[in-house]
Amino acid sequence: MIITVTLNAALDLTYRVPALTPHASHRVTEVTERPGGKGLNVARVLAAIGHDVTVTGFAGGDTGRTLHERLAGEPRVTDALAPVAGATRRTLAVVDATTGDTTQLNEPGPTVTPAEWAAFLDSYTELVHRAGTAAVALCGSLPPGVPVGAYALLVRAARAARVPVLLDTSGEPLRRGVAARPDIVKPNADELAELTGSHEPDRATRDARRRGAHAVVASLGADGLLAVTPDGTWRARPPERVRGNPTGAGDSAVAGLLSGLAEHLPWPDRLARAVALSAATVAAPVAGEFDPVTYDELLPRVVVAATASATT
Amino acid sequence: MIITVTLNAALDLTYRVPALTPHASHRVTEVTERPGGKGLNVARVLAAIGHDVTVTGFAGGDTGRTLHERLAGEPRVTDALAPVAGATRRTLAVVDATTGDTTQLNEPGPTVTPAEWAAFLDSYTELVHRAGTAAVALCGSLPPGVPVGAYALLVRAARAARVPVLLDTSGEPLRRGVAARPDIVKPNADELAELTGSHEPDRATRDARRRGAHAVVASLGADGLLAVTPDGTWRARPPERVRGNPTGAGDSAVAGLLSGLAEHLPWPDRLARAVALSAATVAAPVAGEFDPVTYDELLPRVVVAATASATT
After folding, report:
1. A312 touches chain B (CB under 8 A)
2. Is residue B271 part of a domain?
3. Are both A132 and A222 inside the same structural domain?
4. pTM for the whole thing?
5. Which residues are CB-contacts of B14 (< 8 A; sequence separation ≥ 6)?
6. Cβ–Cβ of A105/B17 closer than 8 Å?
7. Per the structure, how many domains does chain B have?
8. Is B94 a member of any domain?
9. Is residue B68 part of a domain?
10. Predicted ipTM of the assembly
């Protein structure tokens, strides 16, 4: 069983409008609604490729209740979201049907009280010590009220339970979390540059590893992944450029890495899976979903090359 | 007891953002959420000025459940919203904190099935025949699936029960509804022009009355109200120009007319109340609320003048 943590879970809404004009009134032609936040997206992909997942983090208010109900309908997903008095945030993507562009509006999320945070820590610690827990992913931003060093605590608790842990966040929570020595961090190019001050991926990835992560897998958009690990350094690229919507591609890459970790696959196979899932997400017609046919077709053709350039 | 009907009820969301930029990502700094749709707004104002109100129409889905819960907390409001399988729509107002402008995004609302419509008609008919029902307001747009002649049916059912009925809608539902001879229709200038083809208020108001309404009260924005009734014709104006947000001003005018009708006030007093409530709504800091101090201050100073110009 894999655990994904989404401290700032969301109800993701997508509105389609004929054309978005500021200060005008719009009739929304299509509404979609689903559980969101990075860890819940990762869980959905993990479940789709056959893994049992327990999701935790916080849920509260009317939107939190909707989240619980939706998760109850998802196969292979166990809902362990902890209660919070405030309301789970909505994120709204307004898609302009004329241009295809998306305007994003993100609510801030509930303020988590110290008592709620303490109760979550207890239930998280119990979960990571449970027999059969194969890996943990810590994903996304922190809601108001959660201490900035939250991920460092959660990394240490997982390591104390001897459960491998992947961290996918940004800014100060990433900086603090990396220092707690997670097994894998998966920054994108911007997050990596913010962490290390370097825009040069090889250099920045090596630097991120020196800060404490056992392995760093940098997601470089259409250029695929750069992995610096204790077992070696690899570049993994899709066989051809995939066009589409990159929303959720990073979450699919995390699902690929995490499932490979849980299955004890060698690094090149983990990276191939992560790149194929990520590209199949870009190619899918629905944002954040992956296309299984594209995944199966791409997986054997992902180019994984060992490289010496980033060896420390 | 007054009944308000909101066939396309809504959960009204307001997002405040520092500045709205299409195709960018925004952090929402403030979220407010409340029951909406014209009939529910009218009910809130009626309750605030001391009237017991029963609200009906449709509510369904997660948003409908939220609506029921919010209404349960409103004093003097009885919730008689009928169930619908689809989800109650959200309306979203995105307020740009830099310019103060609002961008509106309206979901379409649930599709009402013929069985749901028939069940609503039964419960509505029962409500209007209940002892103590003083007046009915039929407010707003029709959700998908409800026949375009819906308001004509509801007007006839109220009249059969000898309950006075006010209609506040637009387009074809207004055209059909007026023909069923409601006691009052309250179009704004645009709705009146669409109904009659005339942009000249005196002429258009007389024409609307010839189409079947016993009284026509046209809301002319900052110019107040023009009422053509069986008892006479009046112009009612605020004593001075009120600045602010006109959202909900029309619904407050309906509450003023309806409460005056239920209390058997003479027309000039009904109009003064409608104008004062409407202006106090424009002046209130929160969109759609009215400011009670401004209302008390304006009420005795509203200028109501009998006029011969619109006599038929």
Report:
1. no
2. yes
3. no
4. 0.87
5. B30, B31, B32, B33, B92, B93, B94, B95, B287
6. yes
7. 1
8. no
9. yes
10. 0.85
